[in-house]
Design brief:
two-stranded antiparallel ribbon, about 45% helix, single chain
């Protein structure tokens, strides 16, 4: 899957925003969704992505972020992920965390 660079950057920003986590450090996906949606504004007449494309890419990134996609699947889709090393940004220390590489 080809991921829009602006969407990937917005997603990375949203999933590392402290305001998008609850008191137990769980990500609040509705907040992440709202942040990315506002950044991308897919319903704007001059938007880069349609609403359908926006959510296909957002859901793909969310699946990658939560571990629903395997490394093999991601490689087949030709996305590049960078390991997150900052412990403050890792939701579950028992699992590796990655961010999408953008150009």
């Amino acid at each position: 899957m080809q991921i829009n660079t602006q969407l990937a950057k917005s997603f990375n920003k949203a999933v590392t925003n402290a305001e998008n986590f609850d008191a137990d450090s769980n990500i609040i996906w509705n907040f992440v969704d709202a942040d990315v949606y506002m950044d991308m504004n897919p319903l704007n007449d001059d938007s880069v992505l349609s609403d359908k494309e926006h959510y296909a890419q957002f859901n793909y990134l969310a699946d990658c972020f939560t571990g629903e996609k395997t490394v093999h699947q991601v490689r087949q889709d030709r996305l590049q992920f960078i390991p997150v090393t900052n412990p403050d940004l890792i939701l579950d220390p028992s699992k590796p965390a990655y961010m999408v590489k953008t150009l």
